[in-house]
Amino acid sequence: MKKVMTGNEAIARGAYEAGVKFASAYPGTPSTEILENIANYKEIMSEWAPNEKVAIEAVIGASIAGARSLASMKHVGVNVAADPLFTFAYTGVTGGMVLITADEPGMHSSQNEQDNRNYAKFARIALMEPANSQEAKDMLVEAFDISEKYDTPVLFRITTRVSHSKSLVELGERINKEVIPYEKKFNKYVAIPAIGRQLRHTVEDRMNKLAEFTEQTKLNYFVDNKKKDLVIASGMSYEFAWEALGDSVDYIKLGFTNPLPKNLLAKHAEGRERIYVIEENDPYIEDFCKTLGIKVFGKDLFPYTGEMTPDVIKKYVLSTNMESFEVEADKVVNRPPTFCSGCPHRGFFYQLGRRKNAVVSGDIGCYSLAVGEPYNSMDWLICMGASLSSGHGAQKIFDLDQDNKKRVVSILGDSTFFHTGINSLINTVYNKGNTINVILDNRITGMTGQQDNPGSGYNLNGEVTEVMDIKKIVEAIGVKHVRKINPNNLEEVKETLDWAFGLDEVSVIITDWPCVLKKKYMDKDLESYENVFRTKNMVLQDKCVGCKACLRTGCPSLVFNKDLKKVSIDSASCVGCDVCLQVCPFDAIVKEA
Amino acid sequence: MTKSIKLVGVGGQGTILAAKVLCQGLIEAGYDVKMSEIHGMSQRGGSVSSEVRYGKKVYSPVIEKGNADILVAFELMEAARYMDYIKPEGVVIINNHKINSMVTLNGKVPYPTGIYESISEKVKTTMFNASELAVELGNPKVANIILLGSLVKAMELTDIDFEKIIRESVKEKFVDINVKAFKLGLNQYQG
Ligand SMILES: Cc1ncc(C[n+]2csc(CCOP(=O)(O)OP(=O)(O)O)c2C)c(N)n1
Question: What is the pTM of this model?
Answer without folding.
Answer: 0.96
